[in-house]
Amino acid sequence: MMSRSYTNLLDLAEGNFAALGPVGGGGRRRQGSFGLKRMSRVMTVPGTLSELDGEDESERAATNSVASDVPSSVGSDRMIVVSNQLPVVARRRPDGRGWSFSWDDDSLLLQLRDGIPDEMEVLFVGSLRADVPVAEQDEVSQALLDRFRCAPVFLPDHINDRFYHGFCKRQLWPLFHYMLPFSSSASDATTSSSPGTGRFDRSAWEAYVLANKFFFEKVVEVINPEDDYVWVHDYHLMALPTFLRRRFNRLRIGFFLHSPFPSSEIYRTLPVREEILKALLNCDLIGFHTFDYARHFLSCCSRMLGIEYQSKRGYIGLDYFGRTVGIKIMPVGVHMGQLQSGLRLPDREWRLAELQQQFEGKTVLLGVDDMDIFKGINLKLLAFENMLRTHPKWQGRAVLVQIANPARGKGKDLEAIQAEIQESCRRINGDFGQSGYSPVVFIDREVSTVEKIAYYTIAECVVVTAVRDGMNLTPYEYIVCRQGAPGSESMSEVSGPKKSMLVVSEFIGCSPSLSGAIRVNPWNIEATAEGMNEAISMPEQEKQLRHEKHYRYVSSHDVAYWSKSFVQDLERACKDHFRRTCWGIGLGFGFRVVALDPYFTKLNIDSIVNAYEISESRAILLDYDGTLVPQTSINKAPSAEVLSIINTLCSDRRNTVFLVSGRDKDTLGKWFASCPKLGIAAEHGYFLRWSREEEWQTCTQALDFGWMEMAKPVMNLYTEATDGSSIETKESALVWHHQDADPGFGSSQAKEMLDHLESVLANEPVSVKSGQFIVEVKPQGVSKGLVAERILASIKERGKQANFVLCIGDDRSDEDMFENIADIMKRNIVAPRTPLFACTVGQKPSKAKFYLDDTFEVVTMLSALADVTDPELETDSAYELSASISSLDIGDEQSESTGRTIGG
To answer: For the chain, how big is the Rg over CA atoms in Å?
Structure first.
C-alpha cells in the first residue's frame, strides 16, 4: 500500500495521494516535455533520478553524483530567478486569437535585474496571471522564452487553487503575519474560494509540495547546473530547494523571503515546521529584510533542529552537515529610475496643481495601503481622531488622505474591517467636518502611479500603521517623491528646501532603516496620535535634516543595490562548491547534502582487516559514548557482545587496546571490570590505567584543584536560574549540562557562563570549553589527543613502534585524537608507512579520514577484527607498557588544541 506520510516528499511530489485527484495528464505531459529540443543550455545527464524511497545505495550514489564533478563546456554564469509569478503581463488579444505580452514594470523581479552583472544572463521561471488553455501552452511558452527569457509554469487549476489559496494564503501567509487559527472557522484574510479551513489542511500541504515539484521540473528543463545560479523568491516556493538539491548536489541556490518570518513560538505551531526548515537549509544563502526576521529563523533552527549559528567576520552562517548556509540581512529598496521617471510625467503637473488647490491651507497626512487585515488602516483613523480631539488646533487644518488599494481577496474578517473603516470615516467627518472641510478623505479605488506620486508630493507626512508587514516601500517612495526629480523645477513643484516626515509602525520591515522616522506601536492609539502631532508640528529645519538623512539612505540602497549585494554574497557562499566531495543522504524532506573533504571515505572492513592481520604492533583507541553505545541509549552500560569483542582483542599480545572516554574512572572501571587487560583513559585522559590490576595514574603533575571552589558557585548560580540544567562533578573537571533546559535559554546561559568563568578563572591553569549542551572546566594539558600520543609513545619506548593504529570516536573531544594521530607520522612516533585508521562515527565533517555510519557498524568492524585475532599469542604487553609510562611527560608542556585556555 502506498505510504501516506506527508514527510515523504517524493511520494507527494509524484501525486500519490487521493486528495488531489488526477494531475491532469495532458497539461503535465506538455509541461514536462516542452523546451528540451529548443533550449541549448539544457544539460543532459546519464541515468535518471530514482524516485522510489526504496532505491539502493548504489543507485543513490549514482544519483547524488549527477552533474557535479566535470566542468561545464558552456560559457558564462546565468541567474535563474524563480518566483510564483513571472514579471510579465499576459492579455488575450481583442480578436481572441493568441496572446499579447508585456513586462510588468512594477514587478520587483524585473527591477532586480539592474543589480545583476551585465555579463550574467537572467532567465525567469514562474507562473502567469492568466488562464492559458492546455492547447496553447506550448506556443505561449516558446513566445515567452524567445522574447522575454521567461519559462512559464502551468499548474492545473485544482492544484493551483489548493496550493495558492489553500496553503499559501490561508495557512502560511496568516501564520507568518502572526495569526493563529484558533478555531475551525478561522478567518481567511484573502479568499474564501478555496476548500478547507484556517486550520492546517493536509491536502493543501500536499498540493503545495506538488506545485513546488512543477516549478522544479521547469527549472530542470532550462538549467545548466554547473554554470547557473538559482534565486528562489518568497514563501510560495519554500519546498523547491530540496527538489533542486536532491537532483543537483552542488547547485548554487539562494532564497529570499519577502514576508516576515515569525517568532519560534508562532512558527512552531505549523505541523510541517521541520520539513520547511530543512528545505530552506538546502539553500546556500537565505535572505531576510531585517535582523528580527533572521533572528526568528535562526531561533527556529536552534529550537527545532538543534543547529546553532556562528558569526564570522560579519557574516552569519549555519553549519549544516559540512555546508555553511549563509544568512543575508538586507532590506529591499525602490527602483530610483522608475520613480524619477514618474516624477517627470506630463500628467503629474496638472494633478499636482489640482491637489494643491484642493488642499490649499491644509496640512495633509497621507496613508497608502492595501486593503487587508494587517495594514492597520482603522487604527490609523482612530489615532487621527484622537489627535483632532486632544489637539483642537488641527481641527479644520489637518486632513488625512487614505488611499486603500482594492482588496485582492475576500473573507469575514476583511469584510468586518472594511465596515469598521467606513464607520470610522463617517464618524470622524461627522464630528469634526466643517463646510468645505472633511478631515478624512478615503479613496477606495485603483489609483494610478502618477496620481499616487502627486499625493506623495503634497503630503506633509506619511503614516504607516501596519500591525505586521514584511517590508512596505511606501515610506521610501514618499521620500523620493518629496525630493523630486533631479534638475526638475516645475511651476507646481513644492518650493523651498526638501522636507518629509514619517510616522511608521515598529512592526514593518522598513522601520529599522528609517532612523529619523517617528516609530509607533499602532495598537497604542494615544501614542500614535501624539506621533502624528509631533510629525506635523516639528520645526522645519528638523524636518529637512531628517529628510536629507532618509534620502541619502533610500537613494543609495535601492533595488539594484539590494540585488547586487545578494548576488555577491551568493557567489561568495558558493565559491568552494566544486572543490568538495558531496554526499546526498536522507529521504523526503530529510534529504540533505553532506559536504566533506575529498579524501574522506567510508572505512572498508576488508581493508582494515587485511592491514590488521599483517601488522605486528597494534594500537586500538576507542571512545565510548556514541561509539560503542548509541548516544540515545537509555542503558549506557556495555553489552555482552562489546565486552566479548574487547576481551578477544586484548588477548592478542600484539594489541594495545585502550578505552579513551570523558566518563569518570569509577563508572568505567565498574562497567569494564570483566576486561582485565583493557587500558582505560578516563575523564579525557586525566586518569589512566593500563589494566584492571594496575593503579590509576594521572597524566599531569599534581595539581591544586582550588579552582573548583571558584567555579562551583558560578555554575550553581546558572543552574538555579536555568530549569533543566545540572552540574556533573568529576575528580578533575566540572561539567554543566543543559540538554534538558529550554534550547534557546540554555544556549544563551551557556554563552554567558563561558564568559563569566573565563573572567573568574583568568589566572588559573584551566581550560573552559563549550560543547554540545555542555560547558566544561578542566585542567590545562588534558585532552584525548595528548593521551593518545602518550600511549603511542609508550609503545615506542618499549622498543616496538606501532605499525597499525585504529582510533574511533564521535564527538568534538575525539577530534583532538584525530588531529594528533595525523601528525605522529612526521614525529617518528610510529613505524614508517603505518596505516592510520582515524575514524569518526557518522557521515559528518571531521579531521578523521574515515567514517562509519553508526555504533552498529563500529561493533561490526571490531567484531571482524576479533574474528582474525589469535588469542593464543597472549602476553602481558599492557603490563610491560605500564612501566614505561611513568618516565614520559608529554602532556604537561602542551595545552589543549581546542577550546579556550585560561591562565598559565
So the answer is: 34
Q: Are 43 and 72 in contact (CB under 8 A)?
A: yes
The span from the CA of 257 to the CA of 633, in Å, is 39
Exposed / middle / buried, residue 183 (Cβ in 10 Å: 0-12, 13-18, 19+): exposed
**Nearest residue to 374 (alpha-carbon basis) of 190, 195, 164:** 190
Give the list of residues 6+ apart from residue 884 with CB closer than 8 angstroms, or none. 794, 797, 798
Q: Which of 561, 546, 547 is nearest to 484 (CA)?
A: 547
- Is the pLDDT at 511 greater than 50, yes or no? yes
Q: What is the pTM of this model?
A: 0.75
- 3 state SS of 569: helix
What share of the chain in percent tops pLDDT 90? 51
State the average pLDDT for the chain.
Answer: 83
Helix ranges (DSSP H) in 86-201: 108-111, 137-148, 157-160, 173-176
pLDDT digits (tens, 9 = 90+) for 449-489: 999 999 999 999 999 999 999 999 999 999 999 998 886 65
Cβ atoms of residues 511 and 473 within 8 Å: no
CA 766 to chain centre: 36
Q: Mark residue 586 as left, alpha or beta (left: phi above 0; alpha: psi -120 to 50; beta: remaining).
A: left
Question: What is the rounded CA–CA span in Å between residue 275 and residue 265?
Answer: 17
The residue count for the chain: 904
Task: Give me the DSSP letters along 580-637.
Answer: SEEEEE-SGGG-EEEEE-TT-EEPPHHHHHHHHHH-SSEEEEE--BTTTB-TT-S--S
